[in-house]
Write a structure and sequence with these properties.
The chain is an all-alpha fold. It has a domain of 54 residues. 88% of the residues lie in helices and 0% in strands. The chain contains 3 helices and no strands. 0% of the residues are buried.
Length: 78
């Protein structure tokens, strides 16, 4: 149910953005995309810092296990 709801929200957001972008100048769209990319990078840095703080609280064996899992997931998606 949650995935269906998120899918509906994603579709609605996509449709709204398509509608909005149709009336915007390329300069405004480029500025928005730049701001969006900056926000995503900041969010990723924040999440990485949060993960580092949390993982440092774990025993070495659990820390190693979770990092290995992360690297396997990353490799699988590459």
């Amino acid at each position: 149910m949650l995935n269906d709801n998120r899918s509906d929200i994603d579709i609605e957001l996509k449709e709204r953005l398509e509608s909005e972008f149709a009336s915007l100048s390329p300069e405004v769209i480029n500025e928005f995309m730049h701001d969006l990319e900056t926000a995503v990078q900041q969010h990723r840095r924040h999440m990485a810092a949060k993960a580092a703080a949390l993982i440092s609280e774990l025993p070495q064996s659990k820390r190693h296990q979770l990092l290995q899992k992360l690297f396997k997931i990353r490799e699988a998606k590459s």
